[in-house]
Amino acid sequence: MNRPRRAFLGALAAVLITAVPGCGLLSGEEPVTPGKEQAKIRLGVLPIVDAAAVHIAIKKGYFRDEGVEVELKTIQGGAAGIPGLVNGELDVTFGNWVSFLNAQAKQTADLKLVADGYRGKPDMFLVVVTPDSPVKTPADLAGRKIAVNTRANVVELAVRAGLKAKNVDANSVQFIEMPFPDMQAALQRKDVDAALLVEPFLTRAMQQIGAVPVLDTITGEAADLPIGGYATTAKFVKERPKTIDAFRRALVKAQQDASDPAEVQSVVTGYAKIDPAIAQVLRLGLYPTTIDVQRLKGVVALMKANGMLTEDIDPAKMLL
């Protein structure tokens, strides 16, 4: 074969290879092409360990490798991210399953569940008080003020379920809404009698002010409670299916990494601004890599049992 012909065939082969979508990619998937879709996601997050996988994915370049640019926007609670989705300020948000299910049931938003984020286990979702508090047992919480980050969310559900398991009337409790970072000071000022704290604020309060746990909420009917995950709108999925799939692939990869506590510790000192010594002893939950529909149906049942949901809702219909 003469040299010009070999050169022509080599060039033709190169063209054919690049023309085949995904050909040669080790992942077997084609990265999002900005020319086809706007490959940027405005993501609502909280400075808590639940969302550690997002920061792991950023640190390790998982989103970048998938061709997605992620812009983080801090929200106060999972419920607070839903209006941002509806009005277009956010494309995806981390949030608690209770708020997502409530919004879908009440038709205030048409949500699609993107990925699981965090699942509870004992000794990490605790109601705490100050060392000098007269509250010593779960029974002493009756009639008290308990801080939660937002109302009608998974935090309130966990407290209600935990109180019910201890034969305490949850309706006697006054829930006070405030951001997690403000709860430690509120306890010290006696603005509230107790607070449901999550990490990293839980360990910080225990070390800095000697906060004492009086109720472990991840027990009884709330055992292995799904805490939160990531959701978007049906509209966003329809408009940018490649972008949301690429985002999910990167996030799930980071969720798998987060099963190693050292990976969580490596990022939480930055985005949550906590001391490395505290990061080493955080009480961590689980970081699932798939959405467990049966567990979410259990959340629906628990919401109904505790008077936080009256409508019917099937989580399976919310999956991508």
UniProtKB/TrEMBL annotation:
Keyword line: Signal
UniProt key word Phosphoprotein: no
Pfam families xrefs: NMT1_2 (PF13379)
Coarse class of the protein's main subcellular location: periplasm
Residues in the signal sequence: 1-22
Compartment list: Periplasm
Family note: Belongs to the bacterial solute-binding protein SsuA/TauA family.
Name of the protein this chain belongs to: ABC transporter substrate-binding protein
